[in-house]
Write a structure and sequence with these properties.
Two copies of one chain form a homodimer.
Chain A lengths: L2 E7 L3 E7 L5 E8 L6 H19 L6 E8 L2 E3 L4 E5 L4 E4 L1 H9 L3 E5 H12 L8 E6 L3 E7 L2 E2 L31 H4 L1 H14 L13 H9 L3 H25 L3 E5 L7 H14 L10 E4 L5 H14 L1
Parallel strand pairs in A: 1-4, 4-8, 9-12, 12-13
Antiparallel strand pairs in A: 1-2, 2-3, 5-6, 6-7, 9-10, 10-11
Helix pairs in contact in A: 1-2, 3-9, 5-7, 6-7, 7-8
């Protein structure tokens, strides 16, 4: 029987999983990424943890057809090179070649958001949909596009940067150096910044009395009736919505999944976003909008999706 | 030998072409669309003109495998129904069924911009590229996305509305009823509006002395050194650029083609748009931008592309 290895590489940790033909994780391991030690050392460490995960599953390397890696940043899937990953401090790193040299198993590389989207299509909330969009609202806005059951990130996988579509020319500065990016308005981090600004203008708001703000405190304050929090969230839902409308008008996925910590808010988040998308997409008068749900697999999406990506590359 | 029939349906005219395996048009005919007479009458007229075009090519219907129709508006390729085409006044029109009943040949339907993009990939300026984007700058901003050599317009072909990505939340009103759409800033019609506003503020501008403005007069005035025209165009290039950057950050085509009447301006238009895209895409520091050129096939793109779409559906 054929197994695939999936690796979800993050800024702080990497996770390794052995994935079976039903996209179940049957063995896993994790370790700090520590990317500053260099990619060769990280690849060696990944290989060691793959052996540990195989051991946990009662398997050996010869049971595995390929390994897939989901990495942050811009990844050239054709060459297996991480072109730029600012939060790893990696530039032009031939990660696939390094890992292949350690393991002797074919290795394939894709962006982590793209892998997570593929994971949700294979085994998560988008199962059964060939065309799906995952949008992860966190420090930034990440995610991926799946069309026809495959990652859709364009020539040499250089696209898929969903968070960097401009929704406001000349608008808020983004960490990428551009202005007006969706991520600068719709990320969870942007929500916190927007709430901080609003709270500074409304000393009576409950937002001023809860210490350092985070997404959950803002939702809690709104639920308790704080008008500032309610207004900040109402505006933030529109920011999320405008980007989803843009992506829908171009790509029209069957299903849109929202991920990231704030997706724990469930219907509180989904209902207003659904309403915005339904009333703003171009085909609003003649077709149903995409289904909008929360992502289901959380951290496992990346491991399953990178394994599935490797399976699709063979 | 197998031939395909392509139909480019427009608001004023439709064009019919018999297309061979090398994507050459070997027989053609055209007639006024007159959509107000109803879709059944238009389909009958299309069938008559197909027979005329076949006659011109020395062929008969039995030499043809299928017919493709590129229609304005939102088209459901799965059912062959024009869902909404405002400039035809058509809503939920089963155009494929009507034409199939006339001809007895399988008929397939797609959006006209998508067909034109496919035509440019098969036989025009994007030949040899599997991933291409056509952006037609006219009354609106149309075009299409080709990925992996196929039209990419999402679930039931409901996407592909490139002109309706929002680049300015709460911005200029669009004909679609939304605000801030790319088309409201980057179309040739928007250029004329922008020049009219600028001219009204600068009575000394040459733009005030040329009668009713159009795209060519604005380019001519800029070439003659009129500072108002130069400034209007500089801003318009940015509007074009921001939408191309958005589409590139998500889809990363190998080649972007600009179409519409203004593409006759060639390098005058291309050079500043290329510069904007190269300096604003997310991967600007680690990868080459897409190639940006003018479309090559003009009106023939739609006929060739709709024939190619039909060929791909069989």
């Amino acid at each position: 029987m054929a197994y695939y290895i999936g690796i979800d590489l993050g800024g702080s940790h990497f996770s390794v999983g052995i994935v079976d033909a039903q996209w179940r994780i049957i063995g896993e391991a994790a370790a700090p990424s520590a990317p500053e030690r260099g990619a060769a050392a990280v690849a060696a460490d990944m290989a060691a943890h793959i052996l540990r995960a195989l051991d946990a599953a009662g398997l050996s390397l010869s049971d595995c057809c390929a390994v897939g890696i989901g990495s942050p940043g811009t990844c050239d899937s054709a060459t297996g090179v991480v072109l730029q990953a600012h939060n790893l401090g990696w530039y032009r790193v031939p990660l696939c070649a390094l890992l292949q040299a350690e393991l002797g198993v074919p290795a394939f590389l894709a962006n982590d958001g793209d892998c997570a989207a593929l994971g949700e299509v294979c085994a998560g909330a988008a199962q059964g949909s060939e065309n799906a969009l995952l949008v992860a609202l966190g420090t930034g806005v990440g995610g991926g596009v799946i069309l026809g059951g495959k990652i859709c990130s364009g020539h040499r996988a250089l696209g898929g940067e969903l968070g960097h579509i401009c929704i406001q020319m000349g608008g808020a500065e983004c960490t990428c150096g551009a202005r007006g990016c969706w991520e600068a308005y719709a990320s969870a981090a942007a929500l916190v910044r927007q709430a901080e600004v609003a709270a500074a203008e409304e000393p009576a708001s409950a937002l001023c009395a809860v210490g350092t703000l985070d997404g959950r405190k803002i939702f809690d304050a709104a639920r308790a009736g704080d008008r500032t929090a309610v207004a900040v969230l109402a505006r933030w839902y529109q920011y999320i919505g405008v980007g989803l409308v843009n992506l829908t008008n171009v790509l029209f996925p069957e299903v849109i999944l929202l991920g990231g910590g704030v997706s724990a808010q469930g219907e509180t988040l989904l209902a207003p976003v659904r309403a915005y998308v339904a009333s703003h997409i171009f085909v609003r008068d003649c077709a149903q909008p995409p289904r909008i749900e929360c992502a289901a697999l959380a951290n496992r999406a990346g491991v399953i999706g990178s394994a599935a990506f490797a399976a699709g590359c063979l």
